[in-house]
Amino acid sequence: MRAAGGVLLAAHLLVVAWITLRPLDVPWVSAANLEPLAGIKADLARGPEQAARQIGGALLLLAPLGALLPLVGGRIDVSPLASLARTVAAGALLSLGIELLQTGVPGQVVDIDSLFLNTVGVALVHVAVVPAVRARLRRRRGARRRGVRPRAHRPREEVTQGSTPTIPRVGIAP
């Protein structure tokens, strides 16, 4: 499960890098937006369709990280608040790194609002997906420990581990 998460995470990050760090051939470029929420206000002023496209795109760009980062971590028994904090911090740092790298890419513009929206997207997906998936995995693990077979799986053969090995005492050299 962790390996599949790692592959999906790498694929997603490659797509994000291609979208955000490729040079664009545009006739003009707007100035960098370093004022919080100014870009969101401008998008909302352009109309609901344009606002949904711009704001939704920024929310969705890094949103899969909210589920992929905990999947790669592979922990089931972890504090939900600590998991959320780690995931959101990683998403924010990745978004900040992308924004800093965009300063040297022709046609790409730094926008503080995209940093905020990317981080909110990561947090929303994490809150919506990860607690439910972890609870389901804990229930399945508990059912296996009690000897109840999950419905969708084939029965497995019980393997005994045998007796505990013992180490004979070795005398200390004089």
Automatic annotation (TrEMBL):
InterPro entries to which the protein is assigned, alphabetical: Teicoplanin_resist-assoc, VanZ-like
Transmembrane segments: 55-72, 84-103, 115-137
Keyword Transmembrane helix on entry: yes
Residue segments, region Disordered: 141-174
Residues in VanZ-like domain copies: 11-128
Compositional bias (Basic residues): 141-154
Pfam family, one: VanZ
Keyword ATP-binding: no
Keywords assigned: Membrane, Transmembrane, Transmembrane helix
PANTHER family registered for this protein in UniProt: INTEGRAL MEMBRANE PROTEIN (PTHR36834:SF1), MEMBRANE PROTEIN-RELATED (PTHR36834)
Protein name per Swiss-Prot or TrEMBL: VanZ family protein
Species: Streptomyces longispororuber
